[in-house]
Design brief:
There is one protein chain. Helix content is 25%, strand content 25%. Helix 15 crosses helix 16. The chain has 790 residues and is of the alpha+beta class.
């Protein structure tokens, strides 16, 4: 055994004058109390909050506490996206399933287990990483033991204020590491001083370290009680051995629990270290408590090993993370800068090795930042990070957290015929809903909506075997379309990411119609109509996969959602939710008015012009028709296409809606078709007369076909699109021989015209008198049903 003394204190030369150092770095003189491990109570410890963090804060760094980074994903909207979480930053750093910070540069320094866990969770959301992630895990050859009951003056337990005043400086414990020696076998053993804040260590030894073999139980209890009351406070000590191991440990992430698991590396000198502990115990006296576990470590290393090749490591020597999709390249702006870079054990305390690696990574990071800034014309380097509003001011953060309500929702069903389950966590923002006055909210034309963000995941095993995680989700629980003011929608829009790389758009709506006094309210509020699309590699919105389906929330899951509501304003949320349901289903109050619609767009894009013709039929009755010509509408085509004849239903008017940018007329004109719209003898513009549907097929349709032949010749064929009774009329014209089938290029009819035997209900409808309606009624009917012919 080599027992030569070693000087453990270290001095650093200052590269800058003391006048330029941050004021927060000023520390007091160490008084050797021995409480270093728990944080110095006398401000004599030069910890990171007094050096690195203090310098960073003075340089403009914002430090957010009481949070934990969960994962990092590439920004899907890097090129800019209205309303998305991204903006133009390269990375999204998520603090939970919903909140994120946008940044161009991300440096992961969460320690071996923390950094590796972040990267594993990021990999589950599509970040391509090396397969060696989690490999090369080392415990730096650590083994920890606990020596108790020694009769020697160990001075290895911290002093409180009362003890400190009575103990001379020479008899005080000193810093956390008070003694050390190195064995010729290749390991070092150091003693550690237990701080006064760790009295539970004495009882923790019962479970973690166990009782030594042959030690009487009651004697052990008495010894530990003496330690607790402080009568033997100087006779206990922690021994830590460190050296080299095989660095073949493995870190993995349990996907079900999202917890880190690991298998420790092989330590060939473990037996030798235990023998050394036993020799120390024999020399100092006392009882040795060894860990029940094979190895206990305080110096974890590896997991994101630095290497020159992505097949052997996760990062390059500069700390940049390799991109597995492009061997040899890295994820720009994503760094690791902590002990997880170290690919093997270093033999002694690795703090200086880690600091040296961090300095090396930092120098390359500065160069990379300056280069990126110059290429993208960024004014100042600090602008490579965007903060969400909730991170700016602590008071605002607390007030906003109080305005949130969290809802858990589980829906199951089928998408594209395949089983699908959505596990969602919704955060509803109630901060800006005070504009809705409670006294008048029921009868107001519009009320506060319930909007929020969505996190969670979707399971669709037929498409992806792993979970589809939500990386950007939005919800509007009561969305209103001014085109349908009586109908409300629950609109979900989710951007999903998977471990395999593809991203998907999951969009769903719950449609709540005020029909039959809430008869269908339960089905409508619990059924989500889903559209599931796969995005291309550039996230431009082009879908390579487009599936539709329905998801439902069961009664039990709905009750669970209500019970599991979180937040200080649960009552307010339930009130607003119930109020909107009352307005929709019972009171049927429109949320928006069509008067809010402006005709600016309609004037800028006027409706195609048409020509009106009056035609005299064979039986002497005058009917009319309208013609839309491609040349009049501004469309030019090289070859002439067959005209299209439109036939309305029974006593139906055709009209265009100013709120709709497209309709059947515009679509057919854009494809180069000339359009004819028949207004037969049953049209509302004609005076009352006695007629039958057979008269339309016998006289009106042949007359308009003759008019079309006047323009194009008798050999021209016509496409016919017929609705309801119009389809029945064209069948009468064809089967009765009133027009020739050779004149028809194609025939498109609704199903009602294909049933030649009328049902009882259809017969009753035929006998009902026509009811005149005003434009206001037509608008109301359209607003409620949103249906028209062309």
């Amino acid at each position: 055994m080599v027992q030569d003394s070693m000087k453990l204190s270290m001095n650093f030369d200052l590269e800058e004058s003391s006048s330029r150092l941050p004021k927060h770095q000023n520390v007091d003189i160490c008084i050797a109390c021995g409480n270093c491990l728990a944080g110095c109570p006398y401000n004599a410890k030069n910890s990171t909050d007094k050096n690195y963090l203090a310098s960073a804060i003075q340089a403009g760094c914002i430090v957010k506490t009481e949070c934990e980074v969960q994962y990092v994903v590439k920004n899907p909207y890097e090129t800019g996206h209205e309303g998305g979480v991204g903006g133009k930053r390269r990375w999204l750093v998520f603090l939970n399933e919903i909140d994120c910070i946008k940044a161009d540069f991300v440096i992961l320094s969460a320690g071996v287990l923390g950094t590796t866990a972040i990267l594993f969770k990021s990999q589950m959301r599509g970040l391509k990483l090396s397969e060696s992630l989690g490999s090369g895990f080392s415990c730096n050859g650590n083994t920890v033991a606990y020596l108790a009951g020694s009769s020697g003056p160990l001075h290895a337990y911290g002093l409180d204020k009362k003890q400190l005043s009575k103990t001379p400086i020479q008899a005080r414990p000193g810093p956390s590491i008070s003694s050390s020696y190195t064995s010729s076998l290749g390991f070092t053993i150091q003693s550690a001083v237990l701080p006064t804040a760790y009295p539970y260590m004495l009882f923790k030894g019962i479970v973690t370290y166990g009782w030594p073999t042959g030690y009487w139980f009651f004697d052990g209890v008495i010894d530990k009680l003496k330690h607790l009351i402080g009568s033997k406070s100087s006779q206990a000590m922690v021994l830590a051995a460190m050296g080299h191991d095989k660095s073949d440990g493995k870190i993995i992430l349990d996907k079900e629990t999202d917890k880190i698991c690991f298998s420790p590396p092989h330590d060939p000198l473990l037996v030798r270290k235990i023998e050394a502990f036993q020799k120390i115990t024999k020399k100092l006296g006392g009882i040795l408590f060894m860990s029940n576990y094979r190895s206990t470590s305080v110096h974890l290393l590896g997991g994101c090993n630095a290497s020159s090749d992505f097949s052997d490591g996760v990062c390059n020597p500069n700390g940049q993370i390799f991109d597995a999709e492009a061997p040899g390249l890295v994820h720009q702006g994503l760094y690791v800068c902590d002990a997880s870079l170290i690919p093997c054990s270093v033999g002694v305390n690795p703090s200086l090795t880690i600091a040296a690696a961090a300095e090396h990574v930092s120098k390359h990071l500065v160069k990379d930042t300056l280069s990126y800034k110059s290429k993208n014309c960024i004014d100042f380097a600090s602008k490579v990070v965007d903060q969400n509003p909730y991170t700016e001011i602590h008071n605002n953060l607390k007030s906003r957290e109080k305005s949130y309500v969290f809802v858990k929702e589980i829906m199951r069903g089928y998408v594209g015929g395949m089983p699908c389950t959505a596990f969602l966590r919704i955060r509803i923002n109630l901060q800006n809903e005070n504009s809705c006055d409670d006294r008048n909210s029921v009868m107001r034309k519009s009320c506060s909506t319930l909007k929020g963000k969505v996190g969670g995941y979707v399971v669709l095993r037929a498409i992806e075997k792993d979970k589809l995680h939500v990386i950007d989700g939005e919800i509007d629980m009561f969305e209103v379309d001014y085109k349908t003011p009586y109908t409300q929608y629950m609109h979900y829009r989710l951007l999903l990411a998977t471990a395999s790389g593809p991203r998907y758009i999951f969009e769903g709506k719950k449609i709540m119609n005020p029909y039959l006094f809430a008869l269908y309210s339960w089905r409508e509020t619990t059924t989500l109509y889903v559209t599931f699309k796969k995005l291309d590699g550039n996230f431009t919105g082009k879908a390579g996969l487009n599936l539709k389906g329905e998801l439902r929330i069961s009664t039990i899951e709905l009750l669970k959602s209500i019970v599991s509501l979180e937040g200080n304003r649960k009552g307010r949320f339930i009130y607003l939710f119930s109020l909107n349901l009352l307005r929709t289903y019972i009171l049927q109050i429109p949320q928006e008015s069509h008067k809010k619609y402006t005709l600016t767009d309609s004037y800028n894009n006027s409706y195609p012009a048409s020509t009106f013709y009056e035609i005299k039929t064979e039986d002497g009755y005058t009917i009319s028709c309208r013609q839309w010509n491609c040349s009049q509408s501004g469309w030019k085509f090289k070859e002439e296409k067959h005209p299209v004849l439109l036939l309305n239903g029974h006593s139906t008017e055709s009209f265009c809606l100013p709120t709709e940018p497209n309709d059947l007329i515009r679509t057919l004109l854009a494809e180069g078709h000339e359009i004819w719209l028949l207004q037969p003898r049953v049209h509302v513009s004609n005076p009352s007369n006695n007629f039958t549907i057979e008269d339309i097929g016998r006289y009106d349709i042949p007359a308009v076909m003759g008019k079309i032949c006047e323009f194009h010749g008798p050999s021209m064929k016509v496409h016919v699109v017929a609705h309801c009774v119009g389809g029945l009329s064209i069948h009468i014209a064809l089967m009765g021989g009133h027009i020739s089938a050779t004149q028809i290029a194609s025939l498109c009819c609704t199903n009602s015209s294909m049933f030649f035997k009328l049902t009882t209900l259809a017969t009753v409808k035929m006998w009902l008198p026509l009811v005149p309606s005003t434009c206001r009624c037509q608008w109301l009917c359209w607003a409620r049903t949103k249906s028209c012919f062309c």
